Amino acid sequence: MAVPPIPPPIAQLGTRPFSFYPALLNAGHNEWIYQSATWSDILVRNTKTNQDVSVPRRYLGEISRVNGPVMIVGLTAELEYRAGVVWPVERRVIEMPRAVNDIPRPRRAPLREARASVVGIRLENERSSRVGRVVAASVALGMAGCVLAISLSRGGVLATHAFYTPPAQVDLPFTPLDDRAAVVREFGEPAQDRWLTRSDVQYESLAYPQRRLYVILIGQNLISKDRATMKYLGAMDWNWRPVHGASFGSLRRLPSF
Predict the structure, then answer these.
(1) In terms of pTM, does the model score above 0.90?
(2) Which of 78, 93, 135, 196 has its Cα between 20 and 30 A from that of 61?
(3) Residue 86's closest CA among 225, 209, 218?
(4) d(Cα 203, Cα 220) in Å, to the nearest integer?
(5) DSSP 206-219
(6) Where are the domains of the chain?
(7) Measured between alpha carbons, how far is residue 153 from residues 144, 147, 150, 162 in Å?
């Protein structure tokens, strides 16, 4: 039996409109209404365009307590809406050219930290140590009893219940800026290459049986399959469950192809 996800604090707003701060780039009107939530994402709807957007829960911050016409929901990072997916904004740093006849300046050696002074610690006597061990054992037994009571109140022992286990995530060396050539350089040519077109977006699936992974690329819907416009969206395991990517909600709604 799957355990439903814990409602995020934003769910307390109900149908009350709110705005993100900082606002989602390329998302248009910055006024939203909460719709639903999963373990990894929340679904919000734009009040002007009626467009649904999934935002990863890990980027949600605090909710403002200002009693104004529109509430403010903070974001822990600057995000942008691109090709149907919410991504973190990556700003490139451009190095300024050096002046004429300028030479590299040596770095200063870090100052040596002064050694911390030694503070004497009085050891506990044998009686105090024995009392501490008794208290620690009592606390451990109390916690074990609470766990057992909760398990029995749910209808049986722990081994008789099926708990929600989210898919394991893997660490892949890809970002939304990588294209098909970057994936092939890292993993080689795929064993199978498939395409899926949905409205104004097209997807490409690269199958790697030896890794038991499907690498998913996303791009604009063109008349011909132009691989030059395809960018990395995420990865699925061999059972078509998302294991890597910026938005698991978008990958979870993607049908197998």
Answers:
(1) no
(2) 93
(3) 218
(4) 9
(5) EEETTTTEEEEEEE
(6) 9-88, 180-252
(7) 14, 10, 5, 15
